[in-house]
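Morning. Coffee machine broken again, so started the prediction first thing and wrote up yesterday's gels while waiting. Chain of 185 residues, entered below exactly as on the submission form.
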Amino acid sequence: MLSLVTDGFEIMTAEVDERAAEIRMEEEGVPSLKVSECLAEIKAKAVFDMLTEEEKAGSIVIGADTSVVLDDVIFGKPQDRDDAVRMLSLMSGRVHVVATGVALFAGQKKRLFTEETRVEFNELDAYQKTLIDDYCDGGSPFDKAGAYGIQDKGALLIKKIDGDYSNVVGLPVARLARELQIMIK
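Came back before lunch.
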């Protein structure tokens, strides 16, 4: 998705204990829709701190994290098939929020934002239950927040979305492009 914004990028990762950060944020009362933004900042700062001063001066570091939130509860990656079925069933017939937090670091500048997209799943009828079972049997849910991907057969579970499709995939590219323009001015 980032290639829609720029061709000149390198993917770097840093060791970040996301679970410990999530626990700390929960204890501090960080709203569930802001957790992904905080995690994005932690990840981007960790990568930014790995750069030399020369690299920092000529680079923009982008960190992103996506959360699926229903009733102020964050649905992370499912632990197993039963957990995936549970999540997808709970979201059925309801609207949840996909929140992607993005952090940008460049030199002395920093920008943070969260893009939210509302996703409504189809009712939990016999057909939806079959779709959920088939989807979970295929193995796709296990590496995805909220146990589904809109870019794969998880799309069959969805009735409609209100907001940025690319945000649900995991990176709000239109907003990112605008925020980058603001940052480099």
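Residues 2-184 form a domain with the Maf protein fold (CATH 3.90.950.10). Going to sketch it on the whiteboard this afternoon.
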